[in-house]
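Revision sheet: structure tokens.
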Amino acid sequence: MNWKLICGVVLVGSHVAVSALEIAANRRLRKVAQQRAVEMRPESETEALKLAKDELKAYDKLKREEERVMNVRVDTWKREARYDDRKRDIYRNLEDGVNRFKESIDYDAQKQAATDLCENELKAFKESIDYDTKIGDLERTISEARSKYDADIRLCESYSGSSNSDVAATLKLDAEKAKNKAVNEAEAEIKKIKAEVEAKQKVLEKTKQNEIQKLESQVLNERTRLKKGSDAELDALEKELKAAKDDISRDIAASRTDADREAIRRHSTNKETVKDQEFTDAKRAADIREETPRHEKLADWLKSKEVPKWLVVGLAAVPLIAIGYLCGQYVILVANVVKAM
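Predicted:
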């Protein structure tokens, strides 16, 4: 059995165990130190802190109740003054006014007329250049050229014997050239005609958009004019609401007791008192942690876990045995070296 290895493992394990014990003891000491810091407060500090917390609690309760009363009374005022209905009516009247203006200028009819004019003029332009007929003729030309090419190819293949192979190849090449020429010319003409139509369509579309934009500008100007009146009505309504809230706030303030007013007056001071006491407690706890000896810190944790003294002594003796063994081996080694010299 390798006793040296066992002793090394025991020493390493003991170090890890002590480190874990230190961490746990420090964690407990922080909690205990905080409790002791609270317990060692002077009576004057404890009374001042209690008074500050009581008044802060009263302040919070007062504010919650006043907020509840404010909400209830504001909702009641809104209902009795028809606040939401009047606000909705203002917005509805604005939209109704815009719609009446649109009707007065035949907005929808003029917009549709601009769209119809664009479509009709484009249709007339297409008719003026005989668009459908020309496109149809050109597409037929392409179809016929491809059909003729297919027929020519079949005919050439009938002459594809060895004696006529050169003639067949020449005929195929001529047929392909003729087909390509007819198709390319027809497609170029189609592209040209469609480009004319697209150019005309862009011009007409721009004219249509200009007409529609004129209508939209008139509507926007009228909406802006009407909105000034609506905004003035909304401002007046909001002023009524603010005045009602101010009256309610004054009523709530008038109903406060002397204790309520004192809690409000001392609110900032009470917050500072609690904050200062927390700082003082933290400072005292830090001092306690700093002044607590290591052995007391470890002993306190062990007692909190109800670890018996005999077990502590027994466990503590284990690494000592390992150290004694290693020291003995070291002494024997030195003695043997000296003896061999």
